[in-house]
Fold these 2 entries.
Entry 1:
Amino acid sequence: MLHGRYQFLETVRVPIAVIGNLLFPALAMFFFVVPQQAVAQDPVAATAAVSQLGTFAVISACMFSFGAGVAEDRALPFDPFVRTLPAGVGPRMAGRVLNGIVWCFLALVPLVLIAALFTQASLSAGELLGGLGMVPVVAFVFLLLGLAIGYSLSAKSAIAVVQAVLFPLAFAGGLFMPPQIFPAWLEVASRALPTRAARDLVVQVTSGVPAYGLAVPVLAGWAAVFAALAVMAYRRDEGRRFH
């Protein structure tokens, strides 16, 4: 809790990081969904649109917090000292995860407000709880990818790689445009991506539109891959800097 509290305060002290985390998904909602009356005034379509942009907000928060954020922390003189404390990596990593998930929830607030004011999107109590429950699930998968990037690269390189990975995955995964309007080849290919699996599962929970059959195995498989990459990156960084 102490690590999570201080990491939250560190983020708050950089206003542009807070604004970027909260603003981009909300702007995408306001400019690309709200003007399309056929979508905004259809409860199912509007809810699905909010869900996929909410998925993007969670993934983006994780990628920047754990990818760029970890790389920036590694460049600070205080980081080697903290990593040599007797408490070990567990509490610090748990605090980082807690901080990241808090920002994932905060990133959804302006998005949900715009949806409530300007669209017909609606959720039952069960759908709301299901959607909230999917936030840490999606966050866990992509924070692992963020950690793999953050512990492998310098701060400048990590920011570029996060952007180069995040936006193609988001477009191809249907987080900006529903995969139903993709060309047939892209619709099929996108089913192998973690973003498409996450998007479809969140949309299923919140709007009842069924996900494709392999969404859960695909997301679990990518989680295992990202976990292996994160562990390898951390051990390599630890061995290079402390042995």
Note: The two ends are 29 Å apart (CA to CA).
Entry 2:
Amino acid sequence: MQGYGLYSQEAEEATVGALFLEDGLIKDCTLRPEHFYLARLKRLMSLILQLDAKGKPVDVISVVEEAGQHNLESIGGSSYITQLAGSVPTVANFTFYQDTVLEYYQKRKAVEIAGRIQEHAQNGDIASTLRDGIHDLMQVEDHLGDDDLGEIMPALVELYGEAEMDLGEMTGIPSGFRNLDRLTGGFQESDLVIVGARPSVGKTAFALNMALNAADQEAALIFSLMSKKQLLKRMISCKGEISSIKMRNPKRYFNDGDWAHLSGVMGAFGEVNLHIFDQAGMDIQYIWSKVRKARRKYGEGKRILVVIDYLQLIAGDPRHQNRQAEISEISRKLKTMARDLNVAVIALSQLSRGVESRQDKRPMLSDLRESGQIEQDADVIAFLYRDDYYHKESDRKDTIEIILAKQRNGPIGTVRLAFMKEIGKFGDLPPGEFG
């Protein structure tokens, strides 16, 4: 080992040398020139990749020819290339060689980022220093070596074991609504669920209802720019069926019975696994770190529902040139978080004004703002529609339609729920009514 533990000349030379031994091995190589520490090996790897891109074989002659006389010395000359090609007896350990090179690259990047954090922490804004540092470290983590060979036997054994278990109709986290759960089987861990609606239709209330239902038996995390006290006030109103008007000023509107009821409802909140985060300007790294801590706290035995209110309010990477690119990255990372931490993520999303110009105001997939990447990443997309939102004389007052427009692993359709706006509570309609 050389360079104080920050690179291995032996591993770098063995990796490149092995590429000369077997035709086509370059296609199994996941390394790029920047992963190497030694300058001559960076240049040599670039030449090998150029040859492969042109469909040419990788051997000593082709590399020397590709380099040309002008650049040959910068890669050690033909004698060094010949020495590399003969230094590795077999390609059997190629995966070990390249994983070692990647590991040292990650060490160097981690040290570099740590130095930058230290410097900026002394002279700059600590919040942005930590945010940028965490973002950069996560980028390094994304490049971790992957030794997955795609073996299917372990998954087959696991699948057979699950087939022998009666999972019932509910395989995910229940929403608490009978007909919706019948369509979805509950919200599945590792799924990204997008809930879209126009402003003031009820998407926050809907999300809070589902979080409350999940927190009773499992665990729920809510990320919102609405203050923790505001959210708790709405959830207490919902859970205790207390009028939101009374909750605005209990001192004026509550009677003795109301105070006793409020005390009981607030006491019940101490028994649920509910966490609310209301930090201004939160970004995906902040959300990821809090969800990871919750996963460590509850272990794999507890299912976790993550609610984000709402998608477009998450701070993006300022290095992106437009908001659409930021939202696309946020969407991808939310899906990755759902999979990596094995949680169900419900992200609320604003809809474009295009829905207002149509005669039928029911939302469609194309109404999602920055819809392309969101539509691709989401496992489930649901829209909320209230007829009385647009038609004051509607005969469907106090009801709301949940339109499942996409479900990767199940049917789509529409479910109708009761919506008690004065307390922000959703519920199943009586049997026989449209649902």
Note: The chain has a mean pLDDT of 84.
